[in-house]
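Students often ask why we bother predicting the structure of a whole assembly rather than each chain alone. The short answer is interfaces. A chain on its own may look different once its partners are present, and contacts between molecules only exist in the joint model. In this exercise we take two input lines together and write out one structure for the complete complex. Read the inputs first and try to guess which parts will touch.
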Amino acid sequence: MNKLKLTIFLSAASLWYRRRVLALVCLTLTLSVTLLLGIQYLRTEIRQSFTSTISGTDLIVGARSGQLNLLLYTVFHIGDATNNIRWSTYQSMTEDSRIDWLIPISLGDSYRGYRVVSTNEQFLAHFRYGNDQPLTLASGDWFSDLFDVVIGAGVARQLDHELNDDLVLSHGGGRTSFSNHKDLPFRVSGILAPTGTPVDQAVYISLEAMEAMHVGWESGVAIPGRTLSADQARNRDYTPDAITAVLIGLDRPILTFQVQRELNQSREEPLSAILPGVALSELWRMMGQFEKALLGISGFVVITSLVGLIAVLLTLQAQRQREIAVLRATGASPGLIAGLYSLECVGLALASCLFALLLGAAAIAGLSPWLLEHYGLQIRLRPLAREEWLLLMAVPLFALLVSALPALNTWRAGRQQGFGAPDSS
Amino acid sequence: MNNETRQPPDSSRPDTLAIRTRNLHFRWQNQARELAFPDIQLTRGEHLFLHGPSGTGKSTLLGLLAGMHPPSRGSLQLLNQELTTMKAGARDRLRADHMGVIFQQFNLVPYLSAMTNALLPCRLSNLRHSRALPSATEAAQHLLTQLGIPQSHWHQGVTRLSIGQQQRVAAARALIGAPEIILADEPTSALDSDNRDRFLELLLTLAERSNSSVVFVSHDQSLAGHFHHRMALEVAP
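Now the answer. The structure tokens for the assembled complex follow.
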């Protein structure tokens, strides 16, 4: 016990004595451990953020297609629908007693690169994200007039829009469009609070407005004389012929598979009903390879820094022969001197881990408001998960392992040590 | 071999023998030549002056006496324990408990203060710790004071001390806890003559107080007069 205490005491004193040389190695190791830990942390956080893009929705129903495609265009606003659903099909779904609520969605237009989602008040009432969090309006109200638009937090921030601004929507997707619905400008009636999900990156109008905009556009471009002015439009009744997709919430989630099967086998028209959770995890599995590679790379960075640490310790070893001679002559065993090396290596690794934790926590605390503001990424500061602790603990363990090289060297040299330092005859 | 003795060793009381060697030989690894050493018999409290030209194996002999490496032939008894049959760990133990050492230079652990350096043997050996009276720290303070290390330097890094001061701190380390044997390998060769005489005087006085035997290696034969015995190592034919 005394020996261990002495070894710890000596290695601490030795580390402190050589702090200038070792500070740089410690910095390298700290940065690489921060990188490793940061990537593991962000991986978990982004996965969390990703899988909580949509919550509480039991089924997503669209025209027959693959589940990833359906998920991508309904939830992530990526890609296009293959086909639409007839309004009558939607109507018959509303009459199904097992279904608690439905959110109809119609896509197709855009506003300066952001998707236009036409829906109804059900979207605000029933759409959930994250940990079953509802949507809230940061300012204004949900649309009530035909030409009202509610914009996501990301759109408002990027394009610097405020309440009552006028917007001209474009026909079709894409950032630059040559066919704009310039006869029928929309007024911003509300701005959604940030969610950190694709909801922030879209603008929301009513189903009726979508129909009204497209009167006279049946051929794909505006035919002069057949389009409507705003006043004309307000006096008409619009029932859509078709919508793009429906988000469904069931009374009893246990019926999910039953309803899904019935919808998939519908005789009225070919439909696809998917479970968002399943589709999300499949999507994550595809993207997950990338972040695993990233984690692997950062693991190698840590190993590289540890090898650098050993290189420095081996260099220092040459300068330490006299000190080792003194310790040996005073009665220290070769084991104690080898232990000195191992402890110094582990001590440095532990210090680096501690610094990495502090650095990481400071970075997350400092950057998370900025990330949410500019990228809609919600990264919260949380206690480390078990996996992250294991990863962190692996660093000093690995340091102990690689320290075996200088330790063994010293132990062997210590056994053959003569009287006095090797350079004194 | 040249062995002059002022007082005959008191071999009638074997329990008081500090060092006794018989027919001691040593061969370095990868070297054909085997070094032969004269027999030594040193009673506790007596001092031995060892001299001889370079290459005669003075440091090697000290290494054998310290138990750093085992002899290839012969018998080596320290405090009536046969070293040749001991394992390396036991020899380390014996050195920690019963020996103090002083080198030519670079005697101190550079990252420890003068005080901690002096206390090192007490931390490596419980026996030395228990013998340092009244307490290890007080014994170290006492020794450092007697060896003329100013109190302001006790807790400073040893690299700031002069060579003479460093050698005296090394002497304090060798003397603490009253070890039976002190091995000194040319400890005065880096000192000027004033410092040298003062150092030797202090070392021998303090060693006598704790009844320690000093084995002192030096080129400088003028120092031989301070010792009870002198022995010359000669180049093997």
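Check your guess against this: Chain B touches chain A through 40 residues (CB under 8 Å).
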